[in-house]
Design goal:
Blueprint: H1 3-11, H2 18-27, H3 31-35, H4 39-58, H5 60-77
Helix pairs in contact: 2-4, 2-5, 4-5
């Protein structure tokens, strides 16, 4: 499967799916929403932020790709609430 095909399929995921929920949890920035996260949601978000920080520090090209992917996810899953 090509990256383009994968991206199209991923963009079509609904927020109610398990993957959509994880993406939403990982990318949430609204402080009011974060106040209502469960312990498990906070754990998922912290683990993702820690991993991402290490990866981005190691490779600037990866940082640019990650930002692009995040913007696509925000547009698709409504991360900009």
């Amino acid at each position: 499967m090509s990256w383009g095909e994968f991206s199209v399929l991923l963009a079509g995921l609904m927020p109610e799916t398990p993957l959509g929920q994880v993406i939403s949890t990982r990318s949430e920035t609204d402080k009011e929403m974060l106040k209502h996260f469960t312990k498990d949601q906070h754990r998922i978000r912290r683990a993702w932020q820690s991993r991402r920080a290490g990866e981005l520090a190691a490779d600037p090209a990866r940082a640019a790709m990650t930002k692009s992917f995040q913007e696509m996810c925000k547009a698709t899953f409504g991360g900009g609430r």
